[in-house]
Design brief:
The structure is a single chain. By secondary structure, the chain is α/β, with parallel strands linked by helices. The chain has a single domain, classed as Periplasmic binding protein-like II (D-Maltodextrin-Binding Protein, domain 2, 3-Layer(aba) Sandwich), CATH 3.40.190.10. Helices cover about 45% and strands about 20% of the residues. It has helices at about 1-20, 35-45, 65-75, 80-95, 105-115; strands at about 25, 60, 100, 120-125, 130-135. The chain has a five-stranded mixed beta sheet, sandwiched between helices. It is globular and about 40 Å long. The termini are far apart. About 25% of the residues are buried.
């Protein structure tokens, strides 16, 4: 009984920690565009293909996991299922192409540090000096 209670407490704690994880939206350090949450939402939903300064924007998504769920909920205001459904409709109707997907935070950082046009997100705890944080949420 004690083991079950302890396991339940640990599981609840793990879920609570992930629910409060901060997501950092990141760009190349040389990107000087003024980027706010509205611009990020429009870029990641394919409604804009450029940064506010006119430079091309290349959005990078994480395939699955906590950061993508947090980003979708906190920045896009949608569940991951809603975002997937949105992109399925866009692809089916020929109205858009979803952001490039990579497997991990490290992959996002690597792509962004090597591409001035890339924008992505990672768990704020994983940000390195190779990228610039636009905002956290």
């Amino acid at each position: 009984m004690l083991k079950r209670t302890l396991a339940s407490i640990l599981l609840t704690s793990a879920v609570s920690v992930s629910a409060f994880a901060e997501v950092a939206v990141i760009v190349h350090p040389g990107n000087s565009a003024a980027i706010d949450a509205d611009a990020v939402e429009r870029i990641f939903l394919g409604k804009k293909s450029q940064f506010p300064d006119g430079a091309e924007a290349l959005p990078i998504n994480i395939e699955s996991g906590g950061a993508v769920d947090e980003f979708n909920n906190k920045v896009l205001g949608r569940s991951t299922a809603q975002v997937k459904s949105f992109w399925s409709k866009q692809i089916f109707t020929g109205k858009g192409t979803p952001p490039k997907e990579v497997a991990s935070d490290a992959s996002v950082i690597d792509l962004i540090k090597n591409n001035k046009n890339a924008i992505g997100y990672v768990d704020a705890a994983n940000v390195t000096g190779d990228v610039k944080v636009v905002f956290t949420k």
